[in-house]
Write a structure and sequence with these properties.
Length: 475
């Protein structure tokens, strides 16, 4: 025990995001402390947060989790943006904004996520990087709690739940949207439901109970967890149920909701074809697109695009090796970096590759080509010719009905951009409307629709006049 190094103290100028003042180390004596170094846009951090919630529930009377957020993007340095991420991910423990990587360096952290385990006397008992380490963490926590109890050092008070909530709104962090000739579908992700609306925002029906869970049933009886991408084929609505790591289908006539791919548990499927899609654990499916009897799936957690062949009922990898990168090339030899947005047009699948701040295109021959973007750590806010364009963590795209423009929501720049599909580069569309972390865009003749996620709203733009209107969904 004496060989364990003392945990470095919190820096004097520590910025606590979701509470006025955090605890001093002395007040944490007797408890096991997990310092969780994470990043809001890092998919592995998001997966690890789900594992930590399980540990927090099990060891609430002997363990405290403290989040330490370090930024990748410039926008993530702002405490207000970190607070949005805290609320979007339902984090209920204290979070530090380590914008200048001070604590990161003091603790020798090298990657997201990393969990530093501190014993009841304030000493480092272990440093565990990566996701999928819950079992290892659980064993270490249990041993440290038993050690503290044996030495009569253990404190048994419950760790407080910390909350700095968003304003009360009808929608909560809406993620993806879909627009048909007469309807608007909204993944009300933070409320774990999908809303079917008119173009003016009147709610027709709700799909999902609103309570996070994975259970099939009829419409509002079903359970979703952070639903995202949507696709409609005839009278079948397909949903990327991101938090449940599965694909759901809604029979729009009967209202029946069923799971058609994924087990409901997080996994990493092998790069092979599967004949029974419901036996395959998926990895954060984020968006969907449809073409030629295939449902394309942006498998964000695996850096791949998969396809569900609806005619043959087969699930198979479509593009990407699974490695994290921005390499163009043929089929499964190319690489993606957290693909989260899809749109199909011109016989091409367009992909928003968020971690590389890039827009990619999978051509009819299967070859992946980068349209704009330079790589995982090359981001910014630059318009111009393709080679010069820089984006910052974009999340969604949509092919314009004329097939010549790809609309892109440049999420961390809070902008709508138009990318020429004829090689003319990209430019910002200046609108008299303030966007906040927009996560999706759709295009219909004369209209552009945006999920203004950070502001909890859907915005409709008239392309002729430039007028932007907030839709009163659920109000």
């Amino acid at each position: 025990m004496s060989a364990r190094p003392a945990a470095p103290a919190f820096p004097k100028n520590t910025i606590w995001v979701n509470q006025a003042q955090g605890p001093e180390w002395e007040r944490l004596r007797g408890r096991i402390v997990l310092l969780h170094f994470w990043n809001a846009s890092n998919i592995h951090s998001q997966h690890m947060l789900a594992e930590l919630k399980i540990l927090e529930g099990k060891y609430h009377d002997g363990m405290t989790v403290i989040g330490v957020h370090t930024p990748k993007y410039d926008a993530e340095r702002a405490a207000a943006i970190v607070q949005k991420a805290i609320n979007r991910m339902f984090i209920r423990h204290a979070v530090i904004n380590d914008a200048d990587f001070v604590m990161w360096r003091h603790y020798g952290v090298q990657s997201w996520p990393t969990t530093v385990v501190i014993d009841s006397e304030g000493r480092i008992a272990g440093t565990i990087p990566g996701e999928g380490r819950r079992e290892e963490l659980e064993h270490l926590i249990a041993d440290l709690l038993e050690e503290a109890a044996t030495r009569d050092l253990r404190a048994f008070e419950a760790s407080p739940s910390i909350s700095k909530p968003e304003p009360r709104t009808a929608l909560r962090f809406p993620g993806k949207i879909m627009v048909t000739e007469s309807g608007l579908f909204v993944s009300d992700s933070g409320n774990n439901r999908i809303l079917e609306c008119t173009h003016d925002g009147r709610v027709i029906r709700q799909i999902g109970s609103g309570t996070a869970g994975h259970f099939d049933g009829k419409l509002s009886e079903a359970g979703f967890n952070d639903p995202q991408g949507l696709a409609l084929i005839k009278d079948m609505l397909y949903i990327a149920d991101r938090g449940n790591h599965c694909i759901r289908r809604v029979r729009m006539i009967s209202g029946e909701v069923e799971t058609i791919a994924g087990t409901g548990a997080h996994g990493r499927p092998l790069t092979q074809e599967y004949s029974i899609a419901t036996d395959v654990p998926l990895n954060s499916p984020w968006d969907l697109a449809v073409a030629n009897e295939k449902l394309f799936i942006a498998m964000a957690g695996q850096n791949q695009i998969w396809a569900l062949d609806l005619a043959r009922n087969r699930l198979l990898p479509f593009s990407g090796s699974g490695n994290h990168g921005r390499d163009d090339g043929e089929g499964l030899y190319a690489t993606f970096a957290r693909p989260v947005g899809l749109s199909y047009g011109n016989q091409t699948l367009y992909v928003v590759d968020s971690d590389s701040s890039s827009v990619r295109a999978v051509r009819p021959d299967g070859r992946l080509q980068t349209l704009v973007g330079a790589g995982p750590y090359e981001f910014g806010d630059v318009d111009g010719l393709p080679a010069a364009v820089r984006l910052q963590g974009p999340m969604g795209c949509a092919v314009d009905p004329n097939g010549q423009i790809l609309w892109v929501v440049d999420t961390y720049n809070n902008k709508l951009k138009a990318l020429s599909l004829r090689g003319g580069g990209a430019k910002t569309i200046n609108l008299p409307y303030k966007f906040l972390l927009p996560a999706d865009v759709k295009s219909t003749p004369g209209k552009i629709w945006i999920a203004n996620t950070g502001a909890h709203e859907i915005v409709r733009i008239d392309t002729a006049s430039g007028q932007a209107v907030r839709l009163p969904i659920g109000e």
